[in-house]
Amino acid sequence: IVAFSRKALYRIKSEIERFCGKKCCIIYGSLPPETRRAQAELFNDVESGYDVLVASDAIGMGLNLNIRRVIFGAMEKFDGYDTRPLTTSEALQIGGRAGRFKTEYDVGFVTTTRKPELHYLKKLFSSK
């Protein structure tokens, strides 16, 4: 599940663990690189017990992850100045993590947590 603030990431992680009983790894940009790598390794290890990855757009940059499904928890992000909708390239970069060649899943799926945002996501993916 992808979100764009540390507060949202930890809220989502807590809700999944509490209500769904799933263990979550978490990755975001300001985590130290070794911590991001360690979280990625836990998520990729089927024996670790970690089933869900809650992450920011940091997953789109340089981590090898076995992701079957990317779920956008938000379709907008704060860019340092304003909150704005995701661009096509941002959505493709993040959503493209699902079902990648030479990972456990060669086919992936991308969706949103809120139905009204699904139309916008489809529009971004169709404009590639």
Radius of gyration: 14 Å
Number of helices: 4
Give the SSE string.
HEHEEEEHEH
Report the mean per-residue pLDDT as an integer: 92
Shape label: globular
Structural class: alpha/beta
> Kindly, what is the distance between the CA atoms of the first and last residues, rounded to a whole number of angstroms?
22 Å
Could you give the order of strands across the largest sheet? Answer: 1-2
**Structure summary, number of beta strands:** 6
Helicity, as a percent range = 25-40%
As a percent range, the share of strand residues is 15-25%
Which ranges are low-confidence, i.e. pLDDT below 50, for 5 or more consecutive residues? none
Quick one: biggest sheet?
A: 2 strands, parallel
Describe it.
This protein is an alpha/beta fold and 128 residues long. Helix content is 37%, strand content 20%. The chain is built from four helices and six strands. Strands 1-2 form a two-stranded parallel ribbon. A hairpin with a 4-residue loop joins strand 4 (76-78) and strand 5 (83-85). The chain is globular and about 40 Å long. The model has no long low-confidence stretch (mean pLDDT 92).
Primary descriptors:
128 residues; globular
